[in-house]
UniProtKB/TrEMBL annotation:
This is Flavodoxin. Residues 3-155 form the Flavodoxin-like domain. InterPro entries: Flavodoxin/NO_synth (IPR008254), Flavoprotein-like_sf (IPR029039). Transmembrane segments: none annotated.
């Protein structure tokens, strides 16, 4: 299986999550790059696309959004996809007003998934968030392990779907 992981990272936490996913997919052919590095070539022969971004002002980063917008309308038809982000858990936010805004506006992963779906990708799993302990991190304990498990589950699901 050919997997492309497109990951933007501001403080390095999202990159660590993507690295954990790549390590978990050791039996697959995995290419990882930043959103601005993706050209049409790597997209031509992929079976799975994983897109990750830190949540910035309740959205994915601009490079992540720009990457998805550059895709042609049907470019991801037949491609399995996953969307993830890094975020601060709403219960860890001290401001009640900010917790309400988080509840209303959400996080980046769901927005990434929606954009991938509009490009005709098949979303294997629900968008996932991985938690940091503060604005700049670090990651909460166990998040890289959880990311690796999530990636392995997606590979198994994709392989099972391909057998049908």
């Amino acid at each position: 299986m050919n997997v492309l992981i497109v990951c933007d990272s501001v403080f390095g936490n999202t990159q660590k999550i993507a690295d954990a996913m790549r390590s978990a997919m050791d039996s697959e052919k995995v290419v990882m790059c930043r959103p601005h590095e993706v050209t049409a070539g790597p997209l031509d022969h992929i079976d799975m696309l994983i897109v990750g971004s830190p949540t910035r002002a309740f959205h994915p980063t601009k490079p992540t959004t720009d990457f998805i917008h550059r895709l042609s309308p049907n470019q991801l038809k037949g491609v399995s996809a996953l969307a993830f982000d890094t975020r601060i858990a709403s219960q860890d936010v001290s401001s009640k007003a900010l917790r309400i805004v988080i509840k209303l506006l959400g996080y980046a992963a769901k927005k990434i998934a929606k954009k991938l779906h509009h490009k005709r990708a098949h979303l294997l799993l629900q968008p996932e968030g991985f938690y940091v302990t503060g604005y700049e991190g670090p990651l909460k304990e166990g998040e890289c392990t959880r990311a690796a498990q999530w990636a392995r589950a997606a590979i198994k699901l994709s392989q099972a779907n391909n057998k049908d």
